[in-house]
Amino acid sequence: MIEQLGMPLGFPEGIPNLQPRDVAITDPGPIVRAAGAGGRYELVVRRWSWPGSGGKPVYNFRSDGREFGSGRCLILTDGFYEFTAPTEPGAKRKNRWLFTDPAGAPLGIAGLVRAVPEGGEAFTMLTCPPGPDVAPYHGRQVAVLPAAKWQAWLDHDAPAAELIGPLPPGTLSVSAATR
Q1: Which of 74, 98, 105, 109 has minimal CB crowding within 10 Å?
Q2: GO: which molecular function terms (predicted)?
């Protein structure tokens, strides 16, 4: 995955072992963030979700109308899930749908990273209105950024509203995911 990013990356904590796996809320996951000025970036592993005011984890955060002047990060993944009501009569588990890049390229999701009270840092994924690929499955979607916008997001070169938004049709492939 790292080779596919096309960005100069540093590894201040060593090169992480990025084995393919699902990342659940509160698990560690890889993020990229700016490492000072001059187009330098670092890949680190941080916990997904920070504690919310009511004690529940903040794993998604609405981007609508916000600027995000600090703490921008890019969450690297090969896909993300959305869930729908069970279609089978009597089923208790929701249907799980996997969204990926049709060519198998990594996805970069706009996120925020910040210090957490218990020490260290954690990240959350930003959300936006859904594009046509996601809308049949969910009323929101994580803010997937086209690769051409990754550096502008990390470097604060453009307002968030110019970078984050629904993706055009055909940007994502969707398939039913087994557990």
Answers
A1: 105
A2: single-stranded DNA binding
- On whether residue 147 sits in a domain, the answer given is yes
Rounded distance between C-alpha atoms, residue 50 and residue 85, angstroms? 27
Show the tokens assigned to 91: 């089923």
Which residues contact residue 62 at a Cβ distance below 8 angstroms, ignoring those fewer than 6 apart? 126, 127, 128, 140
Give the Cα separation of 97 and 83 in Å (integer). Answer: 6
Single pTM value for the model: 0.86
**Rounded to 10 degrees, what is the CA torsion of 125, 87, 20, 128?**
-20
Closest listed residue to residue 139, CA positions, set 79, 60, 66, 67: 60
Whether 50 is covered by a domain: the verdict is yes
What is the residue range of 122's domain?
Answer: 2-15+25-76+104-131+138-163
**CATH code for the domain in which residue 52 is found:** 3.90.1680.10
* 96 and 57 Cβ atoms separated by less than 8 Å: no
Report yes or no on 84 lying in a domain.
no
